[in-house]
Amino acid sequence: MKTAKKKWYDYLWILSVIYLVLGFFNILFAWLGLLCFFIPLIISVIKGTKGYCNRYCGRGQLFGLLGGRFGLSKKRDVPGWMKSRPFRYGFLVFFFIMFFVMLWNTYLVFAGARDLGQAVTVLWMFKVPWHWAYHGTIFHPGVAQFAFGFYGVMLTSTLLGLITMVLFKPRSWCVYCPMGTMTQLICKVRNKR
User: Which of 36, 86, 154, 159 is deepest in the core (most CB within 10 A)?
Assistant: First the structure.
């Protein structure tokens, strides 16, 4: 059987790993994660497709590699409730609430009402001190506050993806990924024209 030739975008999973490693050692690299937010939105608005999710998402590729090729997945179907619209939209709303809380904390640091919190919140509940990843810069502490919060969002979603990858099919995270749900909504609205 002939295998398809790998394309450049088949290796974007490497960028996901590099992102997590860089943010671990210097939290300001967390800002690069905004690319994972804006690129899918831009593609869905311009092209009306989920091309990013289907082809360019390094995190989805990473889960596919770990769960598929390395066999770390039980390869069971995702439960119906996890695929349901109420769960996916509910998770999207919850995700937005957590994102806006992160933005509010960033604003408070920029406004001087709060000191920089050098902790990454994992699963939106557990604060993990990240003191080695930030030693001050020429930037305002609010820049680092955003980075700590955003890295927490990215780390949490990666952990959730790894858990569902192990329990179910490799790319189970893609079923309820907030970016996937959001781009799907954008595509539906755009393609109704």
Answer: 154
CA dist 171 to 16, 41, 192, Å?
15, 20, 28
Tokens at residue 145, please?
């506050």
Please determine, for residue 66, whether its predicted confidence score (pLDDT) is greater than 70: yes
Indicate the Cα dihedral angle 47, 50, 55, 59, nearest 10°. Answer: 130
**Is the confidence at residue 3, as pLDDT, over 80?**
no
Map tokens 């990843």 to a residue: 133
Distance of CA 2 to the CA centre of its chain: 33
Phi, psi of 22 (to 5 degrees): -60, -45
Q: Which residues contact 181 (CB under 8 A, 6 or more apart)?
A: 88, 89, 91, 92
Residue type, 104: W
Local structure of residue 11 (DSSP, 8 states): G
Three-state SS at 76? coil
What's CA 141's distance to the chain center, in Å?
23
pTM across the whole model: 0.91
Q: Tell me how crowded residue 102 is: count the other CB atoms within 10 A of its CB.
A: 19
Residue-by-residue DSSP string for 133-174: G----SS-HHHHHHHHHHHHHHHHHHHHHHHHHHHS-TTTHH
